[in-house]
Amino acid sequence: MMTLRATREFPLALRLLFINQFGVDIGFYLLMPFLAAYLEHGLGMSAALVGLVLGARTLSQQGLFILGGSAADRLGPRMVIIAGCALRTVAFALFAFGNSLPLVLAASLLSGVAAAMFYPAVRTYVALESGDRHAEAFALLNVYATVGSFLGLLLGSVLFMTDFRIFAVSGAAVCTVLTVAQAMVLPRQAPVDTARSSVFADWREAFGNGRFLLFSFATTGMITVENQVYLLLPAGALKASGWTGSAGVLLALGALVNMLFQLRITRMLERHGGGLRWVSAGLVVMGLGFVPPLLVCEGTLSRGLADSVPRMLVLVLGSLMLYFGTMVAHPTVMEMIPRFGREALTGTYFGLFYVFSGLAAMGGNFVVGRAMDLGERTGLAWLPWIVCLGFGLASATAVSLLYRTFRLPGRTLLTSAPAAEAEIEGITAVRRMAMSRRNGSPRHAVARRMRAEHASAPLHPPSSPAGRGQTAPAGEGSRPQNPAPLSGPARAAGDAADQPPR
């Protein structure tokens, strides 16, 4: 299988992180979706206390993502990954053996802190150690996360009638093994420069990066639409089929298509201009995935096989569009995040993006949930699907606007050195002609000199030696030492080249 072959091509440390992501998602989705039922029926807690425990986990996770990212920058991602896995082991053990509110609350808080440390640190490690294969690395990370979440939900639903504490002990055992493996396999990294600026200065730099903030805001629709795999689509599948296990069919389908097509799609996009130019197209496909369900969302709960199968096939079509759009957009979005700032702040940018993503998921799910309630009360069953379509198309429009106005990293107007040199040569020639006229030289003399220069010029101008985020030294390329200020798109390309390197 292509996914396994591509995994073996990466260093051992990255392969372990892929497996780690797989195991962590299995443990999370094995435990968390069924935690509320255990607290209410197993421990006899009230609905208010159940909400307190679950809210504590969400608050500690979303609020501390930026701290986890900063820790990865300052302590190194290796140490933070190991600490996050160890904390998750402790949290699952407390869930297994704690039967009082303080212990369960502590377990919930530790689980959130562990996630806040683990996710930015893993992405930071992948971004720093994957060389020039960032897109493939994040694509594989997405595959392992998707398959792990599906298997976790599958195992949880099968074992739901057994003792919840068995889940927790199993999750703690898996995290223990992963913690030890990472401590043994992940190579130690160079010590971090202690003379760097303060954490608050790093945060000010990230919060002051206008392009990054615009990008984070533009992708909020993508985060909201992705989360409907766990909210709107399961509700639609239940209504279309009348079977409580129909949501599992959609999740299994997502895991299967991710394993089969994610890496193929990522490599195809790299061959056709890079994933950056296709992000908005992927977001459009994600939004359009909510159009087919509009055909079957009306009516009552399905009650017959002849009725449920066609309706379920329509839901499957919409889910496939959502999954394929995600496979186009998501890896490139993750790849771009660290490119907005300095390499030393990779973790900070990932952490801040996850904070925005968490807020977007909560706010977007609230809006979709309200639309679902309103649709049920008023008979407008199509309302939440239209809302999700709007989220997807709005996000696609925003990202496309950023792409066209050259506010995304790596996006420049002049994509080839000969094209850039040709434009600069033309501008320089016009300036020479104007200077010659001011000096009283005859027009035909200027024309002869320009023709002579053109005839003696090499057929293929030398390529610029500068890489991404670099400029050629004076005299080495065709860029003049003191060119006239360019206007319009050419000025934007010059400004992009002056951005600090990663």
TrEMBL record:
Residues 435-502 are annotated as: Disordered. It is a multi-pass membrane protein. Keywords: Cell membrane, Membrane, Transmembrane, Transmembrane helix, Transport. One of its GO terms (molecular function) is transmembrane transporter activity. Residues 13-412 form the Major facilitator superfamily (MFS) profile domain. Pfam families: MFS_1. InterPro entries: MFS, MFS_dom, MFS_trans_sf, MFS_Transporters. The chain crosses the membrane at residues 12-39, 45-67, 79-97, 103-126, 138-160, 166-186, 212-231, 243-263, 275-296, 308-329, 349-368, 380-403. The keyword Cell wall biogenesis/degradation does not apply. One of its GO terms (cellular component) is plasma membrane. It is found in: Cell membrane. This is MFS transporter.
